[in-house]
Amino acid sequence: MTESLAFMQGNEVCVEAALYAGLDFFAGYPITPSTEIAEHLARRLPSIGGKYIQMEDEIASVCAIVGASLTGHKVMTATSGPGFSLMQEGLGFAVMAEIPMVLVNVQRGGPSTGLPTGPAQGDVMQARWGTHGDHAMIVLTASGHQDLFSVTVEAFNLAETYRTPVILLLDEVVGHMRERVMIPEKNQIPVIDRLRTSVKAGVDYHPYLPREDGRLPMSDFGGEHRYNVTGLYHDMWGFPSTNPKVVHGLIRHLTDKIRHHAMEISRVKEYHLEDARTVMISYGSSARSALHVVNHRRARGERIGLLELQTLWPFPYSLVAEKCENARLIVVVEMNLGQMLLQVKRAVRHPDRVMLANRVDGVLITPSDIQSILRLIQGKGV
Amino acid sequence: MAVRDYIRQRFFPHLWCPGCGHGIVMNGLIRAIDHMAIPKNDIVMVSGIGCSSRITGYVDVHTLHTLHGRALAFAAGVKLSRPELRVIVPMGDGDALSIGGNHFIHAARRNMDITAIVMNNRIYGMTGGQFSPLSGSGTQASTAPFGNIDPAFDVVSLAKAAGAGFVARSTTYHVTEMIDLLKQAISHRGFSVVEILSQCPTYFGKHNGMESAVDMMENFRKNTKSLGKIPEGYSEDKVLRGVFVNENRPEYCQEYERIIASAMKGET
Question: Does ipTM come in above 0.95?
Answer without folding.
Answer: yes
